[in-house]
Predict the 3D structure of the following.
Amino acid sequence: MAQDAQSPAEKSGVVAGRVGVVGLGLIGGSIARALSRAGREVYALDLDEDIERFAAIETTAGTLTDELVGTCELVVLACYPEGCVDWLHAHADLVSAHAIVIDTGGVKRSVCEPCFEIARAAGITFLGCHPMAGTQFSGYAHSRADMFEGAPLVVCPPPEVRGVTCLALVDRLEGLLAPCGFGRLTVTTPERHDEVIAYTSQLAHVVSSAYVKSPTLARHEGFSAGSYKDLTRVARLNPQMWCELFLDDADNLASEIGTLVGALNRYKEALEARDAERLTELLAEGDRLKRSDEREDEV
């Protein structure tokens, strides 16, 4: 009997469903857990060998070695932006042409621009990605398999990949990440991503960090409830990681902070003038904008 024909991926040495994860922090660890739970073969690499060994007990199949990189159908770079670029630069020649490489970072321009160039030169596929989920905690110990269920995933394809080719590539990525349970994939450019994420994520962390610097922080016990908890939750963060993200998106974030400072000053001026009419107008405007935003989310 004739043997079944091998697919191009199989001929290249890629093992269907095999995944390599670089970085076992909160995001990388959660992706590894989700894929492993679904029966995918996951190999991982982390700067902390103890984390690698711990993950191998319950989640991964072992260490992602250079020899295994070329057998992975999906490679997930879940480290700091600079680390993602450095890894791809050093290992691009080992990645199969039939694989997809993604990152998971919170900024895209500083990662996608060099990684697109590296991928083109090596003849491989790189997509910038940003899972829109997480917690105020970091590290593998806080990762979990259901972290991304229902969460959006932002995808930034190379600019030369368009039309049907882009749709097919994103559809393939969605299949590879299906066990993670992402609810919606949004395709955009690195520039647009960084512009919007400065408002939806980074600004919230800056505001929360600044908010807890009030002297009243030491006296809030017994006086705080949901509003305080909501506003201070993300003040607990990884300073080194968020510093890198903020600086990589400094132009957009500084602009958003300027807009916020201007808005806060208008509230401050109304309060100092005891101007009830103006203050009511400002509050009503905010209420109206938020209600409109909620209606759009429901559509």
Remarks:
- The mean pLDDT is 94.
